[in-house]
TrEMBL record:
Keywords: Metal-binding, Zinc, Zinc-finger. Residues 27-55, 57-85, 120-147 form the C2H2-type domain. It comes from the Eukaryota. Signal peptide: none annotated. InterPro entries: ZNF800 (IPR039149), Znf_C2H2_sf (IPR036236), Znf_C2H2_type (IPR013087). This is C2H2-type domain-containing protein. The keyword Metal-binding applies. SUPFAM superfamilies: beta-beta-alpha zinc fingers. GO terms for molecular function: zinc ion binding. It comes from Caerostris extrusa (Bark spider).
Length: 190
């Protein structure tokens, strides 16, 4: 039974309504102007991308952490060569950890936990890249690292070009260069 038939708001709806930065009818995030197919996916987006405190899931075999629990499962199968049955058995050990402002990761070594620079491959999603720089930028997204933000709406991203593109699309009457700010407290030397 959903909240529309009972007249009561679900926990997800209450959380999103209190935030005030998304449209519950159109499943749209105002922070990054992204639309979703369901309340569930909008809720997940707001928790994993725009929350002050974010959940991370640690691999029970090594120290890798992931924003999504399914990434841990894929990591277990691809990196640790676990079978589906072994992965299912380890699920009980995969617990969420809440971390404030994950963009503050500054370790140069941190990127190596998520990338194979010899094969130019992301260890989170197995995607391959043509250059180390492209791989670093991609891994930064998995880690939630940000270096640039929009003055008008606090949209944050790792790439300067992504932030400029955001300003041109979302705030077309504004000068993009004047609205993109480098946020040193979130920077990472990758």
């Amino acid at each position: 039974m959903n909240s529309k038939s009972t007249g009561q708001l679900s926990k997800r709806e209450k959380y999103l309504k209190l935030r005030g930065d998304c449209d519950l009818n159109e499943f749209k995030c105002f922070k990054c102007n992204t639309s979703f197919n369901s309340l569930k996916t909008l809720h997940f987006h707001m928790l994993s991308i725009h929350a002050e405190n974010r959940r991370y899931y640690k691999c029970p075999v090594c120290d890798y952490t992931f924003v999504q629990v399914w990434c841990v499962n894929r990591h277990l199968m691809k990196v640790h060569k676990k079978t589906k049955e072994e992965t299912d058995g380890l699920k009980i050990k995969i617990k969420p950890t809440t971390t404030a402002k994950p963009g503050n990761i500054k370790s140069d070594d941190h990127q190596y936990k998520y990338a194979d620079f010899e094969k130019l491959k992301c260890l989170c999603c197995s995607r391959s890249f043509s250059t180390p720089a492209n791989l670093r930028r991609h891994v930064a997204r998995h880690l939630g690292l940000t270096r640039f933000w929009c003055k008008l709406c606090n949209y944050k991203t790792f790439n300067h070009s992504d932030c400029l593109q955001h300003v041109k699309k979302i705030h077309p009457t504004q000068d993009p260069q004047s609205l993109v700010i480098k946020c040193s407290e979130h920077s990472v030397n990758m």
